[in-house]
Predict the 3D structure of the following.
Amino acid sequence: MRFTWKRMAALGMSMVLLGSMAACGKEEAAAPGAAAQSGSEAKETETETKAGEREESKEQESRPPHPSGPVTIQLWHGNSGVNEEYILSVVDDFNKTNGYGITVEATYAGKYPEILSKTSTAIASGDAPHIIMMSSTGIPMMAETGALADMSEYIARDGLDMDNFVSSMLDFCYYQDQIVTLPYQRSVPILYYNKTMFDEFGLKAPESFEDLTQISKAIYEKSEGKTAGAGFLIDMFFYQEALIRSLGADGILAADGSGPACLDDGSMERVLKDWREGIEAGYFCKVEVTNTSSIMKEDLYNGELGAMLSTSGNLGNFTEQFESLDYELGVCAMPVYGGLGGNIGGGNLGIIASGHSEDEIGASWEFMKFMMEDQQVAKCAIETGYLPVTYSSTKTDALKAQWEANPNYRIAFDILDQCSESSWCVYQNEYESYLKQAASYVIQDFSWTPEEAVEYLKEQAKIVFQ
């Protein structure tokens, strides 16, 4: 059964709560010339006003209290390099300025799958962190276990406007009638390229995957076979799904999560075929069994690779590296078939409720709220390259100045209307293991043809989605 998100139910509840706050205790002025109220009408109005005041009082009493005293909370993140420097600076700012004596301790806990696994283990042992970063695929699993705190009442109490969040990032914030995560370090795939090399060979940024293929062939030929044109990793629900969607499929999975959506229409086969041909011919970078990302980055930095796909969340790291090189960094949106596009990836923040007191959850919310302030969201985008997650943050002077000074930092935000959240269903992780296996047999050891890989995936889908 497909996991069901009920965004509108949660949003409606928040709006009702916020609406009641605005309405209670507020009387409209009588229209000019209106007749005076009779005694009974006045008494009725007075009764209604008192009832409204009592209702408002009840709502305020039912809302969660603020932290009552000093408390220490644990944040588990997956940032490294300049991104880790950024998150540590945010933690330091909050620890120095919050008025509740809250101390946040930030710990690198690995990439998203590791954070999820470690958190599950920590919950079972009674030693869970308070806030974690999760990928969209990990959120439903945590929500279904009841591990995540419902932030709806905190959001209503403090008037956080959910409509201010970029709408395409909200899909995995809502679970049933709850708000269980907020978008934070969200990203899309973008192409990082050696602009100096492109200029030398008379090449421009690609505007489609077809362009990227021709550019890669040109780089390989002009370098006399010494330099591959482009490289990308096996990340089926980030890079490859974006290509599949551009060929007309719903995605790797059907929209209702009932099964695969790209095996019968030829889109998966086409992506694997074009990728394999490029690697065999030398104009696409070979995908190593281990450390592929690090190897591709080093090749790009050393002028031995023309371009590579990576997350926009790595823009800060790429920018820093290129500042010490003799090459200029070029950035463009991900080329897909027929144009530009991509999948929305990255992570959301959620509060772990399991095993934590009301004070700890309240303190965690205070830090979450701090991270959602316009200046903090803008700072995240400026220092890391992750997308600004609120509309109002894009209007800050700091972010506007950054985008004007370095247009590379706004490319990912500008392409959002052409990007989609990755598809999801309860069987995704199981099916993804088969996807990676099939792709590796096609483009790493070349033991399968694209057609054989598709037939294998059809057989596995019968088992996984039965």
